[in-house]
């Protein structure tokens, strides 16, 4: 399917690896010039070189922390008028809510709610003026089915989801859509980090715990990042202009609800 994206420009956050990188690659494969950002410069530059060489698009790599004002300023200086914005940030650590301080909550809300809102605020008006914009927020399946040890993530990402539910109905008249992609278990470093507590508690390896968890999924496996990237690319395409304010769950059928 021709997605009508060739020559567009995208900002993709936390794109040096994992699901962010998968989205950057999928968009680049469609001819989108990408501005990618992540905290660690080395892996980010390696990813930029790979995308540039493999897909033949313009790639700008901005190393920095997108959850800070400085990090956002640097990215927007490099790409002040993006056609596409993919919001993404590493999730807060798992744990027991009794152990979390207000500072822990502030960090989680800043990273997984407020940063996305601020990037939307600084880009959406330009998208509306140009009559094209696609904003995708990578959140979590925990928005649909909360995970008890991921309370910080549950709260922050649900807050972002509630905010987008309102604004996305305002922007769509200008051909600017805002949607959420809710990943379940995908083969990423983040998944490994969430399995570590279970592995330690049971005296097993992460690989053993991972195999057990994968077998419990209806798909009998974890998701592949490229599958996630493909879903992102479609939501960003000119074919998806009638989809807004939606939260699309990619979890292999793990959520058992009808709706």
From TrEMBL:
SUPFAM superfamilies: NAD(P)-binding Rossmann-fold domains. It comes from the Bacteria. It holds the Pfam family adh_short_C2. InterPro entries: NAD(P)-bd_dom_sf (IPR036291), SDR (IPR050259), SDR_fam (IPR002347). Belongs to the short-chain dehydrogenases/reductases (SDR) family. This is 3-oxoacyl-ACP reductase. It comes from Sneathiella chinensis.
């Amino acid at each position: 399917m021709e997605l009508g994206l060739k020559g567009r420009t995208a900002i993709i956050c936390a794109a040096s690896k994992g699901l962010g990188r998968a989205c950057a690659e999928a968009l680049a494969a469609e001819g989108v010039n990408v501005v990618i950002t992540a905290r660690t410069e080395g892996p980010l530059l390696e990813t930029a070189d790979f995308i540039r060489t493999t897909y033949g698009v313009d790639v700008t790599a901005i190393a920095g922390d997108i959850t800070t004002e400085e990090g956002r300023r640097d990215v927007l200086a490099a790409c002040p008028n993006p056609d596409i914005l993919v919001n993404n940030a590493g999730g807060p650590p798992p744990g027991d809510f009794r152990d979390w301080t207000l500072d822990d909550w502030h960090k989680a809300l800043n990273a997984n709610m407020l940063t996305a809102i601020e990037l939307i605020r600084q880009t959406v008006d330009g998208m509306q003026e140009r009559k094209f914009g696609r904003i995708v927020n990578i959140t979590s399946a925990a928005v649909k089915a909360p995970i008890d040890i991921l309370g910080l993530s549950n709260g922050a990402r649900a807050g972002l989801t509630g905010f987008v539910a309102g604004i996305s109905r305002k922007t769509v008249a200008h051909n600017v859509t805002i949607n959420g992609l809710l990943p379940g278990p995908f083969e990423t470093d983040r998944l490994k980090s969430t399995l570590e507590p279970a592995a330690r508690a049971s005296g097993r390896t992460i690989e053993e715990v991972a195999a057990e968890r994968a077998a419990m999924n209806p798909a009998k496996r974890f998701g592949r990042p490229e599958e996630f990237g493909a879903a992102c690319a479609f939501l960003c395409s000119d074919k998806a202009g009638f989809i807004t304010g939606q939260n699309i769950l990619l979890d292999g059928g793990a959520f058992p609800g009808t709706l």
